[in-house]
Amino acid sequence: MQKLADNDAERLEKNLQLAAQEHLTKKIIVLVHVPPFRESCMHEGEISNDDYLPFFASKITGDVLLGAAKANPKIEFLVLCCHTHSSSFYKPLDNLTVKAGSVEYGKSIVQEVIEL
Which residue, among 98, 93, 100, 90, has the nearest Cα to 71 in the 3D structure? Predict the structure, then answer.
């Protein structure tokens, strides 16, 4: 599983670099299944405990996102994720926001409408 996460993070890093190079880029929206930070990994209203955290969050993805946001302070990064079934909002940097949506098995829910 770690190798898959490493490969995905490497691909994400390359794609973020390409997107940030576009002359007029002001906002980058990143969609991931697994939350990229511990603080965005909620279960029943609390951050998942350390025993389960490796299965519910991807630190390497978070590291890539932090690096991209720090390298591009004029670009707003919005990360949308799920996997934990509980909603959360986490803003580790002024230009990096992570939103996790809530869901119940068998029930799709519109979390919000994003206007571009």
Answer: 93
Q: Where are the domains of the chain?
A: 2-100
The answer on pLDDT for 28 being more than 80 is yes
Using a 10 angstrom Cβ sphere, with 0-12 exposed, 13-18 middle and 19 or more buried, the burial of residue 19 is: middle
Residue 54, pLDDT > 80, answer: no
* Alpha-carbon separation of residue 110 from 86, 101, 104, 107 (angstroms): 14, 9, 12, 10
Reported confidence tier of residue 27, pLDDT bands at 50, 70, 90:
very high
In the structure, what pLDDT confidence band is assigned to residue 11 with cuts at 50, 70 and 90? very high
How far apart CA 84 and CA 45 sit, in angstroms, is: 10
Contact 39/89 with Cβ under 8 angstroms?
Answer: no
**Hey, what are 36's tokens?**
């990229």
